[in-house]
Amino acid sequence: MTALTLADLETLAQWDTLTICNGLELLDAKYRTTGFTTRNMVCLDPNLKPIVGYARTATIQAAAPLSGDAEAVREMRAHYYEHFAE
């Protein structure tokens, strides 16, 4: 993955996500029926500035307790929070 420069991020921050998503749909019809949504999106509060950055994601399962001994569970939880703190 190529890292974005500060200039790249500042350029992207000129537009909100909704504008980018709606624009992609105009460039390629596949985006009209794939992924995030199939309808145009609108910003609920246009006074808010767009934010640009990287997202950290994880998959968790809250329906069942973690397996392993108490120390292993603590370590797993610590890694989860460290991942997002980075």
Name a few traits of the molecule:
single chain, about 90 residues, mainly alpha, 3 helices, about 40% helix, elongated
User: Which structural class do you get from the secondary structure elements?
Assistant: mainly alpha
What spatial form do the alpha-carbon principal axes imply?
A: elongated
Q: Helix count, per DSSP? A: 3
Can you summarize the main beta sheet?
none
The radius of gyration computed from the alpha-carbon positions, rounded to a whole number of angstroms, is 19 Å
Unreliable runs: none
Overall mean pLDDT: 81
Number of strands: 0
Q: Hey, roughly how much beta strand do the residues contain?
A: under 5%
Quaternary organization? single chain
The helicity comes to 25-40%
Order of SSEs, N→C?
Answer: HHH
Distance between the termini: 17 Å
